């Protein structure tokens, strides 16, 4: 029997302001101190005005009732401490109020409650994004998609040039033409495009294309000119301007911090384009069952902009923002004042530090050389973006200020430096529950997992690398032995080390179920196993995208599992990931996504 869903258009839902007030009524317990870090500053005049407008509607809002809803008729995976599967769940407004047998939930709900028949489909906590770059999933609403299979369809540089040329033809002269997602290792030429290739697109527009890793870019000749880069420009600290070996002239490829000028040009699009990105990002996250998204490196303008868009109801999911180092320094000094309008909907989380680059971009910092190094140096092993001593100094400073740190790292040499920094910070300012995060931690060795356990570190694994880049990790970047242990989830599980999983969207699509499938099966895009000894059971993978992801952000008391008092953030799936064959988990469909008790995505829509 198919599930019985009441179409969204037919539901009687309280207005958005009612939902916001219901969320403020809800959690009858104290939040963790890390969730209450002050972002002080005078309230903007517009903010005070909006407050008056909200108060003016308060009398009508107080008339809003909180509907009681019962979910029954399918497996309900709670993700609680006992990993229970129960018969029924009851919500009231924005919160879960009853979980257990159908008789127990009906006794709580009374006879007037609305009943949602699951029809054998599965109900789970909404997926919690452990790391991505919201609203980056919407970037293709304003930039050209240059992804190669299996994500996109660009297979060679000629096709890349043709796509960009079409975009240039509809772009005002002088404005940047932008493409995103090219992967040199998947192009038939097996190389990065050059400024000469992009000059074929146009010579009247600057052109910039971002690598799929997000850690490098290529620009055309006009782009180099506008960025002030020529043969005499020195490499910046933590970055490289790639040059032609014969002439010394820039090829157009900018790695890591060398692309800072381009990022400054591209990361602040005009308001209409921001709105297009946000709208498309919302669609993609909600269609994936994600109810909490993360902006994994935010500056001051993004903090303010997302705060206002969420406040106005333009972001129908919860958002956690990680300020970058420069923004965090401004917050700590008082130069930047910021306070979320509602911590349940938008909150500031860890400070984001970027220690090295990407393996597929050859900029991750390894302890041993790459399997097939780029260029002529057989000893090449990447490089750090931040010198070791500066990294230690920064981690100490943020830790001493009571902040959580989230550090991007891929190579094991960089992981050594980071663990040294965390250990030094804890030695000077001991904090029993700091929960530092190692974002990606792809090349973590067994001895480093042991140190993480001792230091209370949470590794967040980008395990989809095994699918999207697994074959090339084995054959090109790392070699068979190291590739087999990339994203060592089984090693972490055996040590009792709490970890999370993430998609790093827009690097790859926001697909939590494919993420779970990858951790369980560890198959490459060609169907070959890679590191089967690191496979984990489906339940552990599910916890890594629900409760453990909430724990990572000090939010385990409000989301990530289906328990009374927690937020009614839910996802209905076509099948239970615990019941289908493991190799078919990625084929499970998201049928409905519910945030604060309200349906915000329905597959039939």
Commentary on this structure:
This protein is of the alpha/beta class. It has three domains: about 10-125 and about 595-600, Urease, subunit C, domain 1; about 145-265, Diaminopimelate Epimerase, Chain A, domain 1 (Roll); about 350-550, Metal-dependent hydrolases (TIM Barrel), CATH 3.20.20. The protein has 21 helices and 23 strands. The strands form five sheets. It has a six-stranded mixed sheet with strand order 7-8-9-10-12-11, with helices on both faces. β13 (about 290-300), α10 and β14 (about 320-325) form a beta-alpha-beta unit. α19 (about 510-520) crosses α20 (about 540-545). The chain starts with 15 loop residues before the first helix and ends with a strand. The relative contact order is 0.14. The model is unreliable at about 1-65 (pLDDT under 50).
Helix content: 25-40%
Shape: globular
Secondary structure class reads alpha/beta
Structurally, the number of domains stands at: 3
Mean pLDDT level: 89
| CATH homologous superfamily descriptor of the largest domain | Metal-dependent hydrolases
- Gyration radius over CA: 24 Å
Strand content: 15-25%
Count of discrete alpha- or pi-helical segments spanning 4 or more residues: 21
**Spans with pLDDT under 50 lasting ≥5 residues?**
1-63
